[in-house]
Specification:
The protein is an alpha+beta fold. It contains twelve helices and nine strands. It holds the Pfam family TMEM181_GOLD.
Length: 478
């Protein structure tokens, strides 16, 4: 049995819920989550794709190995958010089962066409990069360039190949240039749902803060203290600055979005560590937080660097790819997965310790069960969705670079946003003070406590009508 000094904390709604109400809480969570999934499935696709064939835009077949290829993107808007240009080379004369790997140079001259039809050269000169042609049954698509935000209403890319020396008997039959950009209809869906989640989160945050206004901070439970931090971070996760992406021609709003998302997700990871450890330890000094902050801090730096590294370099050179600096990229990726594994081991250790010490203690066991159950639901759904989206691609080198081109429909966007928002809303409801909030200091770890569980209403997890006199008398016996 755990021997720890019991702290006085505000009685949470969690203690007063009946079994029937508990089931209704989880049913409401799943209904809200699946409703967003259904809306997402019915929504527009995230990425719009348009294909141009080199045989149509080049002057003669002889130039298929060199170019130049003039690729016109057509009219774009800020609602298209980003632009990718990829190419897939089609070969004739390859034998089945024969792999072909050929490195060659690529030069790209990018022009932005303004509203007055004048062309503006982006960059001081043409961008030169090395690409690797990898073909088996068919050649893998090659990323020519990526623009993180749309600065002009239209673009023209002039592409040339250099030193593309194919083996004898193998010829290029054609080249497919693929233009990918965000669907404007999806962008409108994204704006509206971000706004709806932002308003809902603001309302939940205000209601939760209002419910705790009568109680001093030192009497809040560790869950209530963390909820007062996570809810404002959820506001940032929903990104109140998101509309600036369409009002300002700058990379700054998207960079803030990366910071907000990384900060919220890492704060959620830190909450799980602190909750499972802090629920059985009332004194939480620097030594309590330091190892947790160190682990999650490294994860935050790694996640933010991985998400913003390529974004920053693409501002200088739209043809940049992580493979150019693959050594540093792989080192950072190994660090991220290593620290992630350490985090999981530490979390499982704290979870086992908490259950071994507190599972027989009334009120503490229900806190553990609810926290663990809802956390496992969120983690399971996240892992399943990630697996369905990327499969084994999570472990491949191109995982980070291809993240934003793997969305198939709006459901994948709404799933993650809805899951995390409804997770926080559920915890805010359950961890808010009960109507007649008592203090947990009255609910000591005493053997007589078991009698309080045998309420006349067997549906009650714990009775909320415990008189102070009864508890005081039981204290005197001990």
């Amino acid at each position: 049995m755990a021997t720890k000094e019991m702290e006085s904390t505000v009685q949470m709604r969690l203690y007063t819920l009946t079994k029937r109400q508990f089931v209704l809480v989880f049913v409401a969570f799943f209904v809200a989550f699946f409703l967003t999934v259904i809306i997402g499935i019915a929504g527009p696709p995230i990425i719009t794709e348009h294909t141009l064939q080199a045989s149509e835009i080049s002057e003669s077949e002889a130039k298929l190995t060199t170019g130049p290829f003039r690729i016109d993107t057509g009219i774009l808007s800020t609602f298209n958010q980003q632009l990718w240009i990829l190419c897939q080379i089609k070969l004739n004369g390859t034998k089945p089962g024969t792999a072909l790997i050929q490195r060659f140079h690529l030069s790209v001259k990018l022009l932005g066409r303004a509203k007055d039809s004048s062309y503006h050269l982006i960059g001081t000169n043409a961008y030169n990069r090395t690409r690797e042609l990898n073909c088996n049954k068919e050649c893998k698509p090659l990323v020519i360039l990526h623009l993180g935000y749309i600065d002009y209403p239209s673009y023209v890319a002039v592409v040339r190949f250099h030193n593309l020396n194919l083996p004898k008997g193998i010829q290029i039959s054609d080249i497919d240039f693929q233009l990918k950009y965000y669907n404007a209809d999806f962008t409108q869906v994204e704006i509206w749902f971000r706004f709806v989640f932002l308003v809902l989160t603001f309302m939940v945050t205000c209601m939760f803060a209002h419910s705790l206004r009568r109680f001093p901070l030192h009497e809040w439970s560790i869950e209530q203290k963390w909820m007062s931090l996570l809810l404002p971070l959820l506001l940032l996760y929903n990104d109140p600055l998101f509309p600036l992406n369409f009002l300002v021609d700058s990379w700054v709003p998207s960079m803030f979005d990366s910071v907000f998302q990384a900060s919220f997700l890492c704060a959620l990871l830190l909450f799980w560590l602190c909750a499972f450890h802090g629920i059985r330890q009332s004194e939480r000094r620097l030594s309590f937080y330091l190892p947790k902050l160190l682990i999650v801090g490294v994860l935050w730096v790694s996640a933010f660097t991985l998400s913003s590294w390529q974004q920053y370099n693409e501002l200088q050179d739209p043809t940049y790819q992580y493979k150019i600096d693959i050594g540093h990229f792989m080192g950072l990726k190994v660090l991220f997965f290593t620290i992630g594994a350490i985090y999981l081991v530490y979390l499982v250790y704290l979870l086992i310790r908490a259950y071994s010490e507190l599972r027989a203690m009334p009120y503490f066991d229900v806190r553990l069960k609810f926290l663990t159950g809802l956390m496992l639901i969120v983690l399971t759904i996240s892992v399943v969705i990630t697996g369905l989206r990327f499969g084994t691609g999570v472990l491949q080198d191109n995982f980070v670079a291809d993240l934003e081109t793997h969305y198939d429909n709006s459901a994948e966007f709404l799933t993650f946003f809805g899951l995390l928002n409804f997770y926080l809303y559920t915890m805010a409801f359950v961890y808010s003070p009960s109507k007649n909030a008592l203090y947990e200091s009255y609910f000591r770890d005493h053997s007589s406590f078991s009698m309080l569980n045998e309420s006349e209403d067997e549906d009650n997890i714990y009775s909320s009508h415990v008189e102070k006199g009864q508890i005081a008398s039981s204290d005197e016996e001990y």
